[in-house]
Specification:
By secondary structure, the protein is an alpha/beta fold. It has two domains: 3-104 and 302-320, Nucleotidyltransferase, domain 5; 115-298, Hexokinase, domain 1, CATH 3.40.367.20. The protein is built from ten helices and 13 strands. It has helices spanning 37-47, 82-89, 99-106, 168-181, 192-206, 215-223, 227-251, 268-273, 276-280, 303-320, and strands at residues 3-8, 12-19, 22-30, 57-62, 70-72, 79-81, 95-98, 115-119, 129-134, 138-145, 151-154, 257-259, 295-298. A six-stranded mixed sheet has the order 8-13-12-9-10-11, with helices on both faces. It has a five-stranded mixed sheet with strand order 3-2-1-4-7, sandwiched between helices. A hairpin with a 3-residue loop joins β1 and β2 (12-19). The model has no long low-confidence stretch (mean pLDDT 92).
Length: 323
């Protein structure tokens, strides 16, 4: 069987072939260079020497809520109609899943050396695990262990919950953000563009002239020990801890927390030493709830593609009566 899997975020679309329950021929294409996902897929197939006619199944993991025929990507210009997509590529069906559903399933395929410990602990058997990660947006999903040894991923839009306030400084930052944005969700700060927004908001609050114009510049300056950039990136980590902790309380994710996505692995050493751990468990009378909850940064290269393949495999095996 020739199947294609895709992990499509706001900035990049990652594609691979799924064969023998493994991904191969991975390519990364910038979404802005293609008018539609169909055009990017055709370009990918040409690049790996495969014909469109050879495709037998496709699973795309996409950023945003998935339902119905029409899908609009949350953080890029693409739109997709299942019917039009299948007609264009000659397919009988398209499996479309949330990108963090795929990311969560990808956690079940992690290999040795693809995790960095942030908080030590022991995964409680039978309990949910949280998968959260800032990138172009903020993805959140829950991974549930099943009695048969398998896993089920629950999609959600946890990146759009309200940004929590835990200190007077955060309240002042929130007030500036609210004046500019109206509703202030977690993704407004906990994303690539959000880090730059946080930096600019800090500068405005402190009456400092901004010196950096991209998230990468802010991160690079922090890693080079620029004091102001360090404070901004520290606040970013603290806010990620607050949101992750809120999600653990909501889902009962005492099985552990995976910090995935494209951002945190780039400053993993900084992150491990940051205030994340304290803010993660700073929940008043429920702080002890976090005593044994392990937290890891995921460094695997393509967990979203792996998860899309697993979702496709589950669908195909279910359709054929397999297990």
């Amino acid at each position: 069987m020739t199947a294609l899997v895709g992990d499509i975020g706001g900035t990049n679309a990652r594609f691979a072939l799924w064969r023998d329950q493994q991904i191969e021929s991975v390519r990364v294409l910038p979404t802005m260079e293609y008018p539609r996902p169909e055009d990017a897929i055709r370009a990918y197939l040409r690049g790996v020497g495969q014909s469109v006619e050879a495709l037998q199944a496709v699973c795309l993991a996409c950023a945003g809520p998935v339902c119905g025929d029409e899908f609009a990507f949350t953080n890029n210009h693409w739109r997709l109609s299942r019917n039009t997509f299948c007609q264009d590529l000659g397919l009988s069906d398209l499996l479309l899943i949330n990108d963090f559903t795929a990311m969560a399933l990808g956690m079940t395929r992690l290999r040795e050396g693809e995790l960095i410990e942030v908080c030590s602990g022991k995964s409680e058997a039978g309990r949910a695990r949280l998968v959260i990660g800032p990138g172009t947006g903020l993805g959140v999903a829950t991974l549930l262990p099943l009695e048969n040894g398998g896993w089920r991923a629950l999609p959600g839009e946890g990146g759009h919950v309200c940004l929590p306030i835990g200190t007077a400084r955060e309240a002042a930052l929130w007030a500036h953000l609210h004046q500019k944005l109206g509703h202030v969700n977690a993704e407004a700060i906990l994303s690539g563009g959000g880090l730059l927004e946080l930096y600019r908001t800090c500068c405005a609050l402190d009456q400092q002239p901004p010196r950096f114009t991209t998230p990468a510049e802010v991160t690079a300056a922090a890693l080079a020990d620029d004091a102001y950039a360090v404070a901004v990136l520290e606040q970013f980590c603290i806010w990620l801890g607050r949101i992750a902790g809120d999600n653990v309380l909501t889902t009962g994710a005492q099985g552990g927390v995976y910090i995935a996505g494209g951002m945190v692995p780039r400053f993993a050493e900084f992150f491990v030493k940051s205030g994340f751990r304290q803010s993660f468990r700073d929940k008043g009378c429920m702080s002890r709830y976090f005593d044994d909850v392990p937290v890891w940064v995921v460094t695997a290269e393509y967990p979203g593609l792996e998860g899309a393949g697993i979702a496709l495999q589950q669908l195909l095996e279910g359709a054929s009566g397999g297990h």
